[in-house]
Amino acid sequence: MSNALRQCRYQWRRVLRATGCAVPPAIRDDLARLQHDRIGALIPILYLTIATITIVAASASGGGFDVMYHAILPGGFLGMGMYRCLVWYRRGDGPVDLVKVRRHLRSTTWLALIMGLVGGLWTLDAYYTTIEARRILAPVFIFMITFAGAICLNSLPRAAIGVMVSALTIPTVAMILSNDMGIRAMGISLMIVSWLMTGFIIHNFAQTVSSLKLSRKLQLLAGSDALTGLANRRAFEMKFTELTGDGALAEETDGEIVLTMIDLDGFKQANDHYGHPAGDAVLIEVAKRLRKICPRAPCVARLGGDEFAIISASQGDAEFYEAQREAIRVAISLPHQWEGQQITVSASLGMATYPRDGASLSELLKHSDQALYAEKAKTLRRRVGDDRYSGAGPR
User: Fold this and answer.
1) Is the pTM of the predicted complex or chain greater than 0.70?
2) Domain 233-392, what fold?
3) For the chain, does the N or the C end have fewer beta carbons within 10 angstroms?
4) pLDDT tens-digit profile of 23-53?
C-alpha cells in the first residue's frame, strides 16, 4: 500500500510539473493572458453544454419526482453555469490587468474542482439508489459533462485534469468494483479514455508553452542587437512608447524619463588601426560596462555603430545623473584588452528629459544630440588648448 501511495504521489508531482511548474518565468505572464483569452472564448460553450446535459440527466434520473435529483442539483448546476457565463461575458474583450487575469484563472480552477466533486458524488448516489436500467445513465452523463469541461479547459491543464479527477474517480471506481461485467468493462474503458484525455491535455499544454518560448525568443532576437545583446533601435523606440503611453509614465517613472545618448570618441581610429574584430570586442565590452552601471534602467540600447542610448526612470536629482554620467565616462575610458593590446576610447554624452526637453522621441534625440556634440566640441577645444600649451612651453 505504501508503495502504491508513493507511486501515486510521484505521478501527481509529474502532472503538476507538466502543467505549470516548469514554465519559464519569462513567459508566465504571456501564458496567463493566453489561457484567459482561450477560456473566455470557450466558457459560453462549456456552460451551455453543462446546462443542457444537466437538464437531460435530471429528466432521466428515475421515475417520480425527487427534489434532490430533479430540482436542487440540476438547478444548482444550471444556475452556477449561467452565472459564471454571465461573469465571463461581462469581462468583455478589453485588456485585463494581469492580477485580475490570475485571479480569474484561479477562481475558474477552484469552481471546476468543486463542480466536478459535486457531480461525482451526485453520480455515485444516483448509481446506487436508482433502478438498474437507469443507474448507468448517471455515470454516462457525468462523463459527458466532465469531458466537455476538460476539452474547454484544456488550455488551463490543472483545471481540466482536476475536474476529471474530482468528478470521475469515485464513479469510475464504483463501476470497476461492480459485479456486473458490462458495467465493470465500461468503468475500465472510461478510465482508459480519461488517461488518454489527460495525455492529450498535457501534450497540448506542452505545445502551447513551446510556442510561447519560440515566440519570446523571436521577440528577443527581433529587439536585440546581434553583437552586444543590448536593445536595438526598434526595441528602444518601442520601450519609449511603452513608458510614455497609457499612463505607464506616471506609474513607473514619477512623471519623467531621462534619455542619455553616448558616442564613443576615438573608436573609428581604433577600429581602423586594430581591425574590425578589435572594434567589435570594444563594443561588446562597452555594452557590459553600461549594463553594470545602469542595472535598473528600463532600456540600454545600441542604436548603431558606436552610438548607445539609455532610458532611465527620473530620480528627480540632478546630482544623481551627473554622477552617473561621470561613472559612464570613467568606465568607458578604462583600457579595453584585446589580444594583448590595450585599446583606449572615451565617451561624449548628451542628456534630455521627457517631457521638459521634448514631447516626442525625435525631439528628445535632437536635444540630446545637440548636448552631445556640444560636449564633443568642448572636449576638442580643451585638447587643442592643451596641445598648444604643451607646444608653447619650455622643451
Assistant:
1) no
2) Alpha-Beta Plaits (3.30.70)
3) C
4) 778 788 888 888 888 888 888 888 788 778 7
